[in-house]
Amino acid sequence: MNRNGVHTHQHHTVPDPGPLRTTSSTTKPSVIIEAGIFGVPQVTFTKRKFGLMKKAYELSVLCDCEIALIIFNSTNKLFQYANTDMDKVLLKYTEYNEPHESRTNADILDVRDAHTHTLQHTHYNTDTHTQHAHYNTHTLQHTHYNTHTH
User: Fold this and answer.
1) pTM of the model
2) Cα(146)–Cα(150) distance, rounded to whole angstroms?
3) Measured between alpha carbons, how far is 92 from 90 in angstroms, rounded to an integer?
4) Cβ atoms within 10 Å, residue 39
5) Per DSSP, what are the bridge partners of residue 79?
6) How far apart, in whole angstroms, are the C-alpha atoms of residue 92 and residue 100?
7) CB 23 within 8 A of CB 58
8) What is the pLDDT of residue 40?
9) What is the mean pLDDT of each successive set of 10 residues along the chain, which is 150 residues long?
10) What are residue 71's DSSP bridge partners?
11) Rounded Cα distance, 51 and 49, in Å
12) CB-based contact 107:84 (threshold 8 Å)
């Protein structure tokens, strides 16, 4: 378990994501976040940091938006990414007084849990409908057989 209370595992490997790729698919596989999946915490941090910066880059290009990403690691070392001038984005942020979306870890977990519940409910309903369809088909075949044999 790491300092944030997240269970870590050292037996998983994840391949390098390779060059920048984007897809138009709206369905994406769910990902279970485990802090130590790369075996060494520093490797985990480095790979996840790169992945986050890559996603920030993609968002800035695909959605024509300004991105400022600030990361402090566990030893208080600063890492930053901005698709434009970081100081200008931070000034814009400090001067912004309108209501806006703001998320915490708890918010993200709530959304994830609600999505997981919806997927489980959909899967249950799909299985139930499949079982009913199979039962109805079997009943119709049996009725058809009995009608023609008597």
Assistant:
1) 0.52
2) 6
3) 5
4) 15
5) 71
6) 13
7) no
8) 83
9) 46 42 46 60 93 98 98 96 97 96 93 87 70 63 59
10) 79
11) 5
12) no
